[in-house]
Specification:
Blueprint lengths: L1 H4 L3 H8 L7 H14 L5 H8 L4 E6 L6 H15 L3 E6 L4 H13 L4 E5 L5 H8 L5 E4 L8 E6 L1 H15 L4 E5 L5 H16 L9 E3 L4 H12 L7 E4 L2 H12 L10 E6 L12 E4 L2 H16 L10 E4 L2 E3 L11 H4 L6 H4 L5
Parallel strand pairs: 1-2, 1-3, 3-4, 4-5, 5-11, 6-7, 6-8, 8-9, 9-10
Antiparallel strand pairs: 10-12
């Protein structure tokens, strides 16, 4: 291989192991030679020599929520490009399953694990950090040398969502949270309450509904809001799956989106832009999250990594305005808006 590429064996080793000190032109020659001769590195042998498996662990909450497959795809693409393999598992929000999954990863000698679950329990965190092992958490974790944190700026995007609805004229705005035992669900709810308070808008207790981060939970939450004496004119949801459930729940009634109720999601999953109407949502970029997670893991694994001393990565959020938000019903701009099709207006609840 080295002879075919016209470089030393040490250079081939550095390229295959992803060491960044190799000049780009030499690295390109090595990879071209690898492709030409069909060389397949023996990962077990490399692990024995280097003491590293070049496998990254990735733990996500669930596979049924489209956000997580998108995150897995981005993470895997980046890891493979950088010479790593990926061991992936989902927890389904089960603490016992989470612990068993990470134990299996440790048995496989993964180099580090990104735990992208948005709600891992403190007790489990403590068990994991007792090991001198590179870990990446979302939102929170102990201040230890082997721990790196991805800090999601929930307030940034949710504030934009509330300000967007307020600028359209909405004053009665409800919020459907995720399960409130999850740290991220509390953070999103608190960001909503803070944004409303900044504008001097009150939130009645009945306008705060706890959901499940599922479409079924969104449907149930919409039914709870529909049962109120006066339906809010705007609904902000803690994730897109909830918002899609709300769209379906309202679709079963005479209430139209956005003519009667404006709906905002959170995540910006790929499906959001194809909903009818297309979903206004707060984007938390899977690509940004995956890039930060891989970079943070490598910072903990590779002693000479340029980010080795960095402990936190900031994850921005941003409102994406589409068709599920408009002026509130009864306002002058809304009355000047073309009426919805008669078939839609006459739809009755199943």
């Amino acid at each position: 291989m080295a002879r075919h590429a016209g470089v030393s064996i040490a250079t081939v080793s550095r390229v295959v192991n992803g060491i960044a000190t190799v000049a780009p032109d030499l690295a390109e020659r090595v990879w071209s030679a690898i492709k030409e001769v069909g060389y397949v590195p023996n990962t077990q042998a490399r692990a024995l020599v280097s003491g590293r498996s070049r496998i990254l662990g990735l733990v996500v909450s669930e596979i049924t929520n489209p956000f997580f497959p998108e995150l897995v795809q981005e993470f895997e693409n980046l890891a493979v490009e950088q010479g790593y393999e990926v061991f992936i598992g989902s927890t389904n929000y089960d603490t016992t399953r989470t612990e068993a999954l990470i134990r299996r990863m440790l048995q496989r000698s993964v180099d580090g694990v990104a735990i992208m679950t948005f709600g891992i329990e403190e007790e489990l965190i403590q068990k994991l950090v007792e090991r001198a092992f590179p870990l990446v958490f979302v939102d929170a974790g102990p201040d230890l040398p082997n721990i790196r944190i991805l800090k999601v700026n929930y307030g940034e995007g949710i504030r934009e969502a509330v300000q967007h609805l307020a600028a359209l004229g909405h004053r009665r705005i409800a919020f459907i949270s995720g399960p409130l035992q999850m740290r991220s669900a509390i953070a999103r709810r608190d960001a909503f309450l803070g944004a409303m308070a900044e504008l001097g808008l009150t939130v009645p207790p009945e306008h705060l509904v706890e959901g499940t981060h599922t479409m079924e939970g969104g449907i149930k939450a919409s039914e709870q809001l529909l049962a109120l004496a006066e339906l809010p004119t705007g609904i902000v949801c803690s994730n897109d799956m909830t918002a899609i459930g709300v769209l379906h729940g309202l679709h079963r009634t005479t209430q139209s989106v956005p003519q009667d109720v404006s709906v905002v999601g959170f995540d910006d999953i790929h499906l959001a832009q194809f909903m009818l109407p297309s979903l206004t949502t707060v984007r938390m970029s899977c690509k940004h999250l995956a890039t930060a997670a891989v970079q943070a893991l490598r910072a903990g694994i590779e002693p000479d990594n340029p980010y080795a001393q960095q402990k936190e990565w900031q994850i921005p959020t941003k409102l994406v305005v589409r068709q599920s938000t408009s002026f509130p019903r009864g306002s002058l701009p809304a009355m000047a808006r073309p009426a919805a099709p008669a078939a839609r207006r006459n739809r009755i609840k199943n």
